[in-house]
Amino acid sequence: MQGNVIDYILRKMITIIGISKTYGKVKALDSLTLEIKQGEIFGLLGPNGAGKTTTVKILTTLTKPDSGKCFIDGKDVIGQPQDIKKIIGVVPQENNLERELTVYENLLIYGMLHNVSEIKRKIDLILKTMELTEKRETVVNKLSGGLQRRVLLARALLSEPKVLFLDEPSIGLDPHIRRELWQLIRKIKIEGRTVLLTTHYIEEAEALCDRVGILSHGSLIALGSPSELKKQIGEYVVEFIDKDGSLISEICHSREEAYEIAKRRNDGVTIRRSNLEDVFVKLTGERIIQTRINQ
Amino acid sequence: MTSWYPIFLKEMLHFRRKLLRMGYIFSAMIAPIIYLVTFGLGLGKTVRLAEGGDYLTFLLPGLVAMSSMNNSYSWVASALNLSRLYFKTFQVYIQSPIKPSSIMIGEVLAGMVKGLFASSLIIAVGFTVPSGFSINLIFLITLLLNCFMFASLGVITGMITKSHEDTATYSNFFIMPMAFFSGTFFSLDRIPLIFKPLIYIMPLTHTNIVIRKTHFDLEAVISLGVIIFYCLLFFILGSRLIKGYNE
Question: What is the rounded distance in angstroms from the CA atom of residue A252 to the CA atom of residue A234?
Fold first, then answer.
């Protein structure tokens, strides 16, 4: 019995072995290797252009890699795409709902495409779970951005997928709507589904993910739980403004060390807990958000 | 339930909404009616056909063929291009466990409905003007095949174009010349011998030949064979393009 539980916990739902993908002269993925366990929320974190969406596109059969292999639930993504499509749900970065159709029509067509049994009952159930029942007959175009995201999530869950891909699920949403969406994603975890989430929001990765992989220029540069990654670089950060007006951050391994550094400065010193942004900066010398703005 | 049905249903839901906006019906009718008035009721009085009969009776089947071509083709090409490149809704099909041929069938059937709808408007107008215009079984079979053929060609265009502007370019280079030079407005006998091979490559030429027939003769059988060949060719090519979809 105990052995079975351990097997279940350790079971790999997604296995990526050395996948590479090049678009023209740009190397989107460079020999990426990764394993994601069954039932975990795994976050791929990195700035735009790091290779997050390419990874999702390959795993969801939209894009073929130049080299490498990947498996979902033991099935070859490249060799058995039809089997893969039966067990995945996708919330894409760009809203791809039928905007001139109603919420119900969108779900109905998706359910029929995925051969969902008892489709009308399941649509009613998912609308209730996602608190969308009142919007059932509303045309998607007339919904707010947050509600459209919720419909995307409802659509992806309608076929009861084993693996759910969320590509930048809260991009462009207001902070309070983002938090509502996080609550819904946590519900999905309770149902035992495996979730692969891509984000460039540090807060989102820390709030939702059991483990995080940090991508930079198509390569995985760090892997572990948010707390493990933060521990590796140091759990405290001392921040101050230098003579040139630049923000300086110093990472420390203990609170005492942080106080020592702070004492040496006169004023304007802040001590805070480190976050995944600090991990990224430490490893790459770049900032996730800044890189995005520059792009 | 057949796996092409959700794709067809989605297109029909969009189509129903467009029909409710009355502007669509008028836009589908406007070009053929302009041709009908200009060439048929206006210039037509001065046209003498080698095979005899009045020009309007000759013109109306050609306008039906042209209208079915334009609507089947451009609806599918444009909708597929937009859903693939801009709205990204085509991704939903690709990520669904259905065969590429099911996507093809759904799109083509939807294109056929749109083509048949536009054609039925012209047919209705055709019966209201004084002419010897009539429809028979050969007419209906040809019309269905024409819609199938150009809806399939629409899928090919929708899958290969790299921007929405490209759709208009393809239309200007292939569809528009076909509309004018394939025997819609004048008899193929009037075309200089040197251009005839080019004219007979065009699929609409064969539709225009068969759609005007009252009985199957050798010419009709050959042209029908060519239409069926193009139907199969375009359908297979379209299915292959969907199967090979890669972002």
Answer: 5
By C-alpha distance, which of B69, B214, B219 is closest to B152?
B69
Taking Cα atoms as reference points, which of A269, A263, A209 lies closest to residue A239?
A269
Q: Same domain for A86 and A61?
A: yes
Cβ atoms of A195 and A53 within 8 Å: the answer is no
Round to whole Å and give the CA distance between B23 and B196. 39
pLDDT at A293: 35
Residue A69 lies in a domain: yes
Contact call for B87 and A96, based on CB within 8 A? yes
Q: Kindly report, residue by residue over B26-67, the tens digit of the pLDDT.
A: 777 787 778 778 877 777 666 666 666 788 888 899 999 999
**Complex-level ipTM:** 0.89
Please answer yes or no on whether A57 and B9 come within 8 Å at the CB atom.
no
pLDDT of A1 over the 80 cut: no
Residues with Cβ within 8 Å of A86's Cβ and at least 6 positions away in sequence, in order, are A114, A159, B97
Which of A63, A88, A109 lies closest to B9 in CB terms? A109
B174-201 pLDDT tens trace: 999 999 899 888 888 888 888 899 999 9
For the segment A77-108, what is each residue's pLDDT rounded down to a tens digit?
Answer: 999 999 999 999 999 999 999 999 999 999 99
Residues of B in contact with A97 (CB under 8 A): 89
The CATH number of whichever domain residue A200 belongs to comes to 3.40.50.300
Chain B CA closest to residue A93: B88
Q: Which of A149, A96, A84, A92 is nearest to B84 (CA)?
A: A96
A37 and A159 both lie in a single domain: yes
